[in-house]
Amino acid sequence: MDTESLVEVLEAAGLSPYQADAYVTLLDLGAASATNVADASDVPGPRIYDVLESLEDRGYVETFEQAALQVRAHSPSKVLEDLRGKATRLERAAEEVEKRWDQPELAAGDASIVTRFRTVITRAKSFIAEANHQILLSATVENLERLRPAIEDAADRGVSVRVSVHTDDDRTALDVDRFAECCTEIRHRPLPAPFVALADRRRACFAHPPDSYDRYGVLVNDRTHTYVFYWYFLTCLWEPWEQIHRPDDGYPIEYFDVRHLVRDLREIDWRENPVRLRVEGYHTDTGEACQIEGLVTDIRVPFETEATNGFELSGQVTVDLDIDGEHMSIGGWGAIVEDVEGTRLTVIG
Fold first, then answer.
1. PANTHER family per the record (predicted)?
2. Residues contacting residue 254 through CB under 8 Å, at least 6 positions apart
């Protein structure tokens, strides 16, 4: 680094132009008289004594008397401490600028566009860490590994975790057992797909596949927008693909959507085989959380066919319960006309 650049750096570190100039001059001269320092630098003669005194107060130089006032650079430890301390603060400031630019805060009702997948995966980790009920994921095996600690912690809290694993083709071997303990259900899509993470029906992360022409991510903290991502997940990333893991230990059987529950109820002929259902969700009139349990007394669907061709996923689907003689209707995500919006539906017998 040349002298001019060193002076500029010292100025940036907090020295005045005269202080920086005088200090660098002293580093070159060693011990010198005050007048010699003034002559060798751009510091005016009348100012040199004030400048040297201020440097001495900072611990950068020391003065001593001979025939005339002499000055020399002090041990550089104090200078190095100051410079390294400022460097550390500048580095932290740079990291904070990058973080705030890269990971905008999401207030309720917000949506943000980001440019880095790292931001999307980091925000997905935080959404998973804060989830209380349900997580839906579409991810590669590699990204599942990155999220694995957060997923395991969520499963330990009792959060339902369902994952659609996407691979480039159907020849890719999947180690299902590695994720079986922390995932309620796993499906395999043998096609590239976007990264999607949905938490508690309110927060969503989305990113295009790595080889996509569009390379951006979307972060959402809003129930309505998350609902759109949910339907994309349900119809494109979940419903059509093979189920490769789900506990098969009899009851209880857990569902994350009332439509899947109704489809299975029709298959087992619920009228001939009474079904007891536990529902976690929210009262639609007050928004208050609730947990109820009762016998299924009716199911209401907008379709007549028994075929499972995907169309039965749309429209109003309702399950009626008898709870100790009291009737209560259960709907799915976004329920309005039913009594309860069910977020976790568990057949317990």
1. HTH-TYPE TRANSCRIPTIONAL REGULATOR TRMBL2
2. 160, 184, 344, 345, 346, 347
At residue 244, the 3 state secondary structure works out as strand
Output 87 or 245, whichever has higher pLDDT.
245
Asked if 79 and 60 touch (Cβ cutoff 8 Å), the reply is yes
In this structure, what DSSP letter does residue 47 have? G
Positions of CATH 1.10.10.10 in the chain: 3-78
Tokens 């009762």 -> residue: 294
Residues of the chain with CATH 3.30.870.10: 110-245
Pairing of strands 110-114, 217-221: antiparallel
Confidence of residue 102 (pLDDT cuts 50, 70, 90): low
**Number of C-beta neighbours around residue 246 at 10 A:** 15
Q: What is the torsional sign of CA 251, 252, 256, 262?
A: positive
| Class of domain 3-78 as given by CATH | mainly alpha
Q: How far is Cα 70 from Cα 86, in angstroms, rounded to an integer? A: 30
DSSP for residue 298 = E
DSSP codes, 310-344: SGGGSS--EEEEEETTEEEEEE-TT--SSSEEEEE
First to last CA, the chain: 78
- Where is average pLDDT lowest: 125-134, 137-146, 205-214? 205-214
Helices 17-29 and 48-57: angle between axes, nearest 10 degrees: 80
| pLDDT digits 0-9 by tens, 281-330 | 999 999 999 999 999 999 988 766 554 555 456 678 899 999 999 999 99
- Whether residue 242 contacts residue 226, with contact meaning beta carbons closer than 8 Å, is answered with no
Top mean-pLDDT range of 110-124, 149-163, 164-178: 149-163
DSSP letters, 174-215, are --HHHHHTT-SEEEEE-S---EEEEETTTEEEEE--TT-S--
